[in-house]
């Protein structure tokens, strides 16, 4: 069993390990295996997003230990998700879906237009998962300047542009 709650500064030292554990799944995809060795978000970045009020953790009900997290930021009237990760031993148990549903409820309560994110296309636990949650892939003509910047920054940081996409979930 797990509970979703706002992330706190006390969670920060534990979140990079959750992200690294989640990234282990990329080792099954030869041309993306390097993602498993990527540094991910720094503790400072986690803290910034927590202080921004748009960061949640799914925690073990017994120990309050983070099993997964979702963090984001308000961007152009939308909730933009920067990262969602679930530790490899807890994947496939509804934790990611629970985090996404929590983010959706929060974004709706804030009267936001949409939730956006960027992800890998053609990776089963990425674009197909988000599509099952109601997200649609955006064409290049539908990208906002902010999403173009996010995708461009990812390419600059070494992510293959042809494998990246932006997705949106309209809330109203």
Automatic annotation (TrEMBL):
Q: Which CDD domains match?
A: NAT_SF (cd04301)
GO MF assignments: acyltransferase activity, transferring groups other than amino-acyl groups
Q: Does the keyword Metal-binding apply?
A: no
Q: Where is the signal peptide?
A: none
Which InterPro entries would you find in this protein's record?
A: Acyl_CoA_acyltransferase, GNAT_dom
Enumerate the spans annotated as N-acetyltransferase domain. 2-162
Q: Record the organism.
A: Tolypocladium ophioglossoides (strain CBS 100239) (Snaketongue truffleclub)
Asked if the Swiss-Prot or TrEMBL record annotates the protein with the keyword Secreted, the reply is no
- List the SUPFAM superfamilies hit by this protein, alphabetically: Acyl-CoA N-acyltransferases (Nat) (SSF55729)
Source taxon at top rank:
Eukaryota
Keywords attached to this Swiss-Prot or TrEMBL record, sorted alphabetically, are: Acyltransferase, Transferase
- Name of the molecule in the record: N-acetyltransferase domain-containing protein
PROSITE patterns per the UniProt record, alphabetical: GNAT
């Amino acid at each position: 069993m797990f509970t979703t709650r706002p992330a706190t500064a006390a969670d920060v030292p534990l979140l990079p390990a959750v992200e690294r554990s989640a990234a282990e799944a990329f080792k099954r995809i030869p041309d993306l295996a390097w993602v498993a060795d990527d540094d991910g978000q720094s503790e400072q970045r986690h803290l910034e997003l927590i202080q921004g009020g748009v960061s949640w953790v799914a925690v073990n009900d017994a120990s309050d230990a983070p099993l997964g997290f979702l963090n984001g930021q308000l961007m152009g009237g939308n909730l933009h998700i920067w990262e969602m990760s679930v530790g490899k031993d807890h994947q496939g148990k509804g934790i990611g879906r629970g985090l996404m549903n929590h983010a959706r409820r929060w974004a709706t309560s804030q009267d936001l237009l949409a939730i956006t994110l960027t992800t890998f296309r053609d990776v089963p636990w990425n674009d197909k998962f988000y599509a099952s949650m109601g997200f649609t892939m955006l064409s290049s003509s539908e990208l906002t300047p902010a999403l173009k910047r996010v995708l461009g920054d990812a390419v600059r940081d070494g992510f293959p542009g042809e494998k990246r996409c932006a997705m949106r979930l309209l809330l109203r």
